[in-house]
Sequence to fold (87 residues):
Amino acid sequence: MTSPEIDYLSDKTPSVVPVLSTVIPDSQIPDALRAALDARDLEQTTFMALGDELVQSLRPELERLTTELVQRSLRQAWASRFKLDGD
Fold:
């Protein structure tokens, strides 16, 4: 294990998170890094789109289940109301 890895794994966590204060011109960003960041951005966009698609496809089922739950709860509340009145 190298020294930076040991420092990383130690219990000495910094209390201040460093902030990049120097603006790095685009011309100084290596093409490989730019490509990796672009690929990660595309991956995130695709992943989030999948989430949106899942929510949209589940919406009718969620609406049906919600309606069913509300109706069942109201029937039970109505039945309980008269069960208590009859006791």
